[in-house]
Amino acid sequence: MWNETDNKLYKAFQFKDFSAAFAFMTRVALLAEKSNHHPTWTNTYNKVEIWLSTHDAGDKVTDKDRLLADEIDSVV
Question: Which domain of life is it from (predicted)?
């Protein structure tokens, strides 16, 4: 479940290892590039954290963020 705080959608994902986390990030990167909407994220070993907000809207959560969040959830 995505949490909305500080005008951002946030979710942490945990995988079995670094390779699985990196594969997930690659799939998300392709989605983000396709929609021209790029997340803020971190990766430490098997954990990926993602924050979504729309910079053009003043760093607020918009439908663009919710759509990308749904697309991200579909590749987990």
Answer: Bacteria
Please name the helix (run of DSSP H) or strand (run of DSSP E) that holds residue 68, with its range, or none: helix 63-74
Residue 21: predicted pLDDT? 98
Q: Where exactly are the structural domains of the chain?
A: 3-74
Q: What is the pLDDT of residue 59?
A: 92
Q: Name the amino acid, one letter, at 57.
A: A
Question: 40 by DSSP, 3-state: which?
Answer: strand
Residues 8/64, Cβ–Cβ less than 8 Å: no
Single-letter amino acid code for the residue at 59: D
Crossing angle between the packed helical segments 18-35 and 63-74, to the nearest 10 degrees: 140
Domain 3-74 has CATH 3.30.1360.20: yes
Would you call 17 exposed, middle or buried from its count of C-beta atoms within 10 A (0-12, 13-18, 19+)?
exposed
